User: Fold these one by one.
Assistant:
Number 1:
Amino acid sequence: MGVRIILCAKQVLDPETPLSAFKVDRETKRAVPPPGADPVVNGFDENAMEAALQIKESAGGTITVISMGRSFVTDVITKPLAMGADDLVLLQDDAFDTTDSFVVASVLAAAIGKIGAFDLVLCGRQASDWDNAQVPLGLAELLGIPCLNLAKKVEVVNGCARIERITTDGHDVLEAPLPALITVTNELGEPRIPTIKGLMDAARKKPTVWGIGDLGLALSSLAKTEVVDLFIPAREKRCELIAGEDDADAGRKLAAKLREAKII
């Protein structure tokens, strides 16, 4: 039967967006997508997708991708299908426009429960928009399964998930019985690029779409956090040119200035 894998993927603003084009709506406390710039699949989630594909190739199985949000760009969110996933479930509802990690984890847990039996849940280590890294840990807790985080290598061996995790002086090898949840880092390697055939296959697959009514959740009772304010910090730069009779004199004056400022 192989390994039944569920991959959590998030559509995010492109982290390569120039700072000059990045805007924040202080009233809604949301980042404003730059005009004409498409979102992307979170980079760490693409690494997790690569890990899922490697497991599928070595042990067989299926990959079901789930993504939660208010709206999606079809060509973006279907990328995991083009890479080789079997199914895509979109959790799409105005109510899913939330930054509360516990709410997100609760919605994903309800969706996984609706999908049915699984062996492995894979997530990116964190999302590039908020960088909280909270959802996978909360999701594992809600599902009641072990969590192995920051994996640079993932294997399924004899009914167990095995990962390698980089440390400051080497690496750890960790195991947990299935079902389990694993978060994947970019140390796993570059995710594969979809082929033309993969893109054509993805275009023929119709995602399953579930709203809040399909999951039977009351999100207002789940919220644990509130965004009080969101803004781009103001930055000030000052430049002082140190002149001298020659380079050596300028160097001495610069050193004196740095000592005065207690930088050296």
Note: DSSP finds eight helices and 14 strands in the chain.
Number 2:
Amino acid sequence: MGLAVVLLATAAFLYGLVSKGCTKPKVLPPYEEIRRPTSTLQACLKEVDRTLYDALYRNGTRERDVFFSRVEPRRTAGEDWEFTEMLVRCKDRRRARRLAELIRKALLEIGKPPVLEMRPRAPHRILLGIRTQGMLTHSIILDFGMGSLSPGGGVRPRVAIVIDDLGYDPVLARGFMELNLPLALSILPRAPFTREVAQEAVRRGIPLMLHLPMEPRNYPETRPGPGALLLCMSREEILKVVDEDLARVPGAVGVNNHMGSLFTEDREKMGIVLGELKRRNLFFVDSRTTKRSVAYTLAKEMGLPALQRQVFLDNRASKSEVRIQLDRLRSIAGRSGRALGIGHPHKETLETLEEDAAWLQKAAQVVPVEALLGEAAKGVRR
């Protein structure tokens, strides 16, 4: 009798919570491969990045004089990190040397200071190399020549942004849809709210992509979630999974990989996937979760419209870090004419994009992903 009363009371309590509109427990998305628990190396790199930004700020370096020419994913001893190559335009040799000295002193203030190497690279350039834990993690070129480093013709650089991993929080997804930016939304095929988010995006006329799960390194310890492509699958099995996943995201005009650090390195398996996407007149974006990905190169060889990611906006979900990555995206586009960034459904990412939308649209042309495809196909440098 007592147990029955307790059960009835518990049921009534839970019913009261639901009837009052209490939020359901949040369903967490599959483990995102690129965002791992912060390691010692990653913490050091974060500190180096912040130190460099602070040195540039104290030097009075203008935003338009800083260019991230390369942000490249790397993996060492099981740790994922990003190599950064930055070019800074200085007025003359004296100012370049002053900035180099400022950076050197700033790095010495870090608890375990990285090693700074400095040597002339050309008559009008000084090369700074930063070694963190014995590895070359940053290359900084101080250029005091008078040549222009940005695209010619007075045309603003173009950037596109994809938001990944959608399908778990429809409220957050709606927030990205309401931004005054032409984002593309990439939805996981078998998340709890996949169909709801997809239908809302199509209704609003927002470009929609399938975020196709693929086998990561260290599988099965690292799991890509349901609907994933695995290297052990046959051609028929791969095509079946692709067909089923696309059917769950109606209206998708393109595909990008979720995880896939192992799968995207396999030319044969990726060829099957890309061939099917070409048959369906879809495009592909290589999320580049591994430096050795063959996906983008293979897609170009096959004549499939394709792009590759230059920047992850929120490997560390804080507004200050998202702003740093947005600046990287802008500066890479400023050097090459275009750049593609990928973000994730974090509250910090949404708020930063909302707050910085006007700045970003002034610094570059923010365009739909499809607008970059023609340039990529032609190899156009705007």
Note: The longest helix spans residues 40-59.
Number 3:
Amino acid sequence: MLNKSLGNISSTNVKEIINSKIELDPETIQELDSIAQLISDLKQAQNALHESETKYRLFFNNVPLGILNFDSNGIITSCNENILAIIDSSKEKIIGQKLIDLIDIQLVSAIENTLSGTVGHYEGDFVSSTSGKITPIRVNFAPIILDDGVISGGFGIFEDITERKQIERIFFHDIINTAGNLVNLVEMFNDEEIEPYEQQKLVKLFGEISKRIIDEINTHRHLVTSEKSKIRLNVRKIKSLDFLIKIVDTHNQTDLFDSHHIAISNDSENVVFDCDETLLGRVLGNMIKNAIEASDPGETILLTSKISNGMVNYSVHNSSYIPSDIQSQLFNRSVSTKGAGRGLGLYSMKYLTENYLKGKISFTSSKTKGTTFTVAYPLQKD
């Protein structure tokens, strides 16, 4: 029989012994052959395991989601970097800790379900136990069940849905504004003193605003059904001045009570550029609405469409002045010139322009010249 130390040699060494001129009895040759095959199988299994572990680690560390593993006692055994950003903590603080002690109380039932062998789910605000930071999240927990049915632990996949929630708030703000325009048109249409030709004009506007509402709802529906918390753009060729005229017609007709005059500058240019019509309409609509609310009845709001530095520029001017202490924080979601909780229109303008339309937004405001908001968009989308 062979010495047991042969178990440490490679299958290639064994084959070399078999094929050498050393005289071996048939039983030894058969045993050597079996050892060679066993070593080869073990090596293949080891390589496959290593490859599988490498792929898992690549996924674990690079997937744009937060992932953590925990054992059958709910003790966290590993996590990736993304989960640390979401829950605002560090590996030193969470590895070896009980998951239930670290997470928001609202997730406890989902974890308990997982440790009992079923999947767990949670969507809502997550409050970090280490910093108090609040993050909107979506979490799915699943148990790890071995072949013998024993639950060895589980894993959780965390998604930061902050952007989705921001877009939802903007959507509801903008859709209410658009629907409000439609309500105003209905009130005008029911006015007994309205002329037939004016009714025909209103009917046309009914169609345009209704289409805009449908487009905004469809845009939001695509977001809700998407795995990515992103708005899907519908980019098309737009004539800047023609589009501005259509938006202005809507606001001139629906400005029932304050009777502002919305005018387009005579030197405006009709520039063709690529953009998402629905999002652009929401930005310009908010710019005009904010200018109306900041102005006194009877004042003129002047709009301009021009090309500058290879970009399409839309400007909206009114004669009001924004106090200097508000200017520096004007685009924050909670800041407004109109009072507490009214800042979503300005925030929407900036958020959609910079994050989706790849444009820029700016403003100037002085007591002598009034306030001008400007958005600029590239002529072509990448």
Note: The first strand starts at residue 66 and ends at 71.
